């Protein structure tokens, strides 16, 4: 990683990305040629109406889906010729996912939820626990390790999900509408966590949102429409969020 | 190793969360394995009982009975007329090479008295070889001797039931009992053989020398006549040959014309019992197969529930795949789940099957026998049912598309 960073600070390189879904006779062009590059340490907000292709774009960035044409490189790695299991390994090592609906395992403690990526990384039980406790305190949930998702508020559940995304020390965090299920106060707290992780740990964050005021917490805003990028600019009026105490 | 422990942990957790469903799924396997265990126990119990009887009957044994008599045109059953003699027995012993022992015998029922105890039982007058031929052994004392046979000595050997009823716990050897008021010295007692399949007590009898029985106990119209002759061949290969030779010899000795029926019958008792054993074998295989079908039905139950479980947990699977679970991880997780279900079902089934069989046999008095091999095989079989029927749902789960799975409601 270091060699790549010194020679080139680009973490994501996307070239003429297209994605076509076929349904029997019909075709849907979800992406029609997207090209952009993202630097290490960026905090990106992707916006756009539904059907604009932003989710498809995120799935491709997350190695969950493959483009029909074009190239996507994450730290110089292309998923084009990789097997299902090799893709799973890249997701495990380099990508942290945060979802709108939190996607935590029910009836499973916060601590165990955070350990999930490490289980598949074959981390030892002891180390797993240690790292999970650390990640939970990183998002302000120290002392709540043994709570189950049903015992936590929405904001707290999203913090657990962020801890899970962090725990394998990924290169990027992909957040798909992370505040979509949260009230505005909690949303700002989550943005505060993202900003701190981005600032202090230098983690690259790419976030989809449909709320313009949430996008203001990111450094760069990209607008999708009909499968292409229609607007890509630095956020000139960036807000700084307070993380708030424990909910 | 870490992977296996982690998968085991995940699987156990999923099963505990759905206790009721896990229990119901296991029920199919429990019933299947329980039925297999019970059927095999009953089958091998019956088989063992028959084997014991064959052993207790004496091996390579031929029984010659005096033949049917014809009285006024209607034929009576075998043994109704005494046509066999002591001389026939002697001729068989000396003239047929494959013969090991020959024991002629006559039988009657009489009352036996010792002190103030009395008991009615079957008295068999025979030669000392009878004890050897029928596979008896003595728990105390000795059999009577050739000298005692020749001298018509008043000695007897008691069966266990008779000894128990007359003497209780006391050693009967050297005591005097009265049979038909004639005093006999007890020289030995037999070790018990138990009941026959048809529930007859084999130990309720007394052996006395043939000569003594003929002269003192059962006065006969034709001296020298015997009821039957037991013949033991040297080995199982000689039995058929000896049977043929006995037939020829006796027809000759009894002056039977080629177109006339035998006035005696020779029966191969070992063969009779062997055929019963064979049918018991067929029976237990049949019962076992029927029980195995229920085990397979149980396996289909596991597959069914695992498929439901995979569908229900689509989102969970999606999360796991998204954060880096490989195909093998998911496959292993669900396979272990179904394996645990089936093995636990197997263990419970073995327990319940055994308890059920014991209860059944206490009501029906059927003999039962638990074989370690059968129990081990049932356990192994239930495990393979789990893997076999768990594989398809597990494979289905491991190949889910993470995007669709995460979107699944």
Q: How would you characterize this protein structure?
A:
The complex is a heterodimer of chains A (247) and B (409). Chain A contains eight helices and ten strands. With 247 residues, chain A is α/β, with parallel strands linked by helices. Chain A has a single domain (41-63, 84-234), classed as Rossmann fold (3-Layer(aba) Sandwich), CATH 3.40.50. In chain A, strand 9 and strand 10 (228-234) form a beta hairpin. The longest helix of chain A is centred in the C-terminal third of the chain and has 17 residues, at 184-200. Mean pLDDT of chain A is 91; it is low at 1-7. In chain B, strands 5-6-11-8-10-9 form a six-stranded mixed β-barrel. A two-stranded antiparallel ribbon of chain B has the order 2-3. Chain B is elongated. Chain B is an alpha+beta fold. Chain B contains 13 helices and 14 strands. Chain B has two domains: 2-53 and 275-407, no CATH class; 82-262, no CATH class. The mean pLDDT of chain B is 86. The interface between A and B is medium-sized, with 29 and 23 residues.
């Amino acid at each position: 990683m270091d060699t790549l960073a010194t020679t080139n600070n680009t973490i994501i390189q996307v070239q003429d990305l297209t994605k076509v879904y076929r349904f029997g006779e019909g075709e849907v062009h979800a992406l029609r040629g997207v090209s952009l590059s993202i630097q290490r340490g960026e905090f990106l907000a992707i916006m756009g109406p539904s059907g604009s292709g932003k989710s498809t774009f995120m799935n491709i960035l997350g190695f969950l889906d493959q483009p029909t044409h074009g190239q996507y490189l994450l730290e110089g790695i292309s998923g084009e010729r990789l097997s299902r299991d090799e893709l799973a390994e890249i997701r495990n090592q380099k990508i942290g996912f945060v979802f709108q609906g939190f996607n935590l395992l029910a009836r499973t403690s916060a601590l165990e939820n955070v350990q999930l990526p490490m289980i598949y990384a074959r981390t030892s039980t002891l180390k797993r626990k240690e790292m999970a406790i650390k990640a939970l305190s990183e998002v302000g949930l120290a002392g709540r390790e043994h709570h189950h998702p049903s015992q936590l508020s929405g904001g707290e559940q999203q913090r657990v999900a962020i801890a899970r995304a962090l725990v394998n020390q990924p290169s990027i965090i992909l957040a798909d509408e992370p505040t979509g299920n949260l009230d505005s106060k909690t949303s700002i707290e989550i943005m505060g966590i993202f900003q701190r992780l981005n600032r202090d740990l230098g983690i690259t964050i790419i976030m989809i949102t449909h709320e313009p005021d949430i996008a203001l917490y990111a450094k760069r805003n990209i607008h999708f429409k009909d499968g292409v990028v229609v607007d890509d600019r630095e956020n000139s009026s960036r807000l700084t969020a307070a993380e708030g105490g424990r909910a | 190793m870490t992977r296996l422990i982690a998968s085991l942990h995940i699987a156990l957790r999923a099963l505990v969360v759905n206790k009721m469903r896990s229990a119901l799924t296991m029920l199919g396997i429990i019933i299947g394995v329980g039925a297999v265990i019970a059927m095999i126990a009953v089958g091998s119990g019956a088989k063992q009982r028959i084997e014991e009887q064959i052993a207790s009957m004496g091996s390579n044994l031929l029984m010659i009975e005096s033949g049917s008599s014809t009285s006024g045109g209607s034929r009576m059953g075998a043994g109704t007329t005494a046509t066999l003699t002591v001389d026939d027995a002697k001729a068989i012993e000396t003239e047929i090479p494959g013969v090991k022992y020959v024991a002629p015998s006559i039988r009657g029922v009489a009352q036996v008295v010792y002190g103030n105890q009395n008991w009615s039982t079957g008295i068999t007058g025979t030669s000392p070889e009878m004890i050897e031929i029928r596979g008896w052994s003595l728990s105390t004392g000795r059999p009577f001797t050739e000298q005692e046979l020749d001298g018509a000595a008043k000695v007897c050997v008691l069966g266990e039931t008779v000894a128990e009823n007359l003497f209780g716990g006391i050693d009967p050897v050297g005591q005097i009992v009265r049979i038909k008021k004639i005093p006999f010295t007890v020289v030995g007692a037999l070790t018990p053989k138990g009941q026959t399949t048809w529930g007859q007590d084999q130990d309720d009898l007394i052996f006395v020398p043939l000569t003594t029985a003929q002269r003192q106990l059962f006065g006969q119209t034709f001296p020298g006549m015997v009821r039957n002759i037991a013949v033991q061949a040297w080995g199982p290969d000689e039995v058929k040959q000896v049977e043929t030779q006995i037939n020829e010899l006796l027809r000759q000795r009894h002056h039977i014309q080629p177109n006339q029926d035998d006035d005696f019958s020779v029966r191969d008792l070992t063969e009779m019992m062997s055929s019963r054993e064979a049918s018991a074998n067929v029976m237990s295989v049949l019962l076992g197969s029927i029980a195995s079908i229920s085990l397979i039905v149980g396996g289909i139950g596991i597959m069914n529930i695992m498929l439901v479980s995979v569908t229900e947990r689509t989102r969970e699977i999606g999360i796991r795949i998204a954060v880096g679970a490989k195909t093998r991880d998911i496959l292993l997780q669900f396979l272990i789940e179904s394996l645990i279900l089936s093995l636990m079902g197997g263990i419970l089934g073995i327990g319940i099957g055994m308890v059920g069989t014991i209860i059944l046999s206490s009501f029906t008095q059927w003999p039962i026998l638990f074989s370690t091999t059968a129990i081990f095989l049932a356990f192994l079989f239930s495990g393979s049912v789990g893997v076999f029927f768990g594989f398809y749902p597990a494979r289905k789960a491991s190949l889910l598309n993470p995007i669709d799975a995460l979107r699944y409601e």
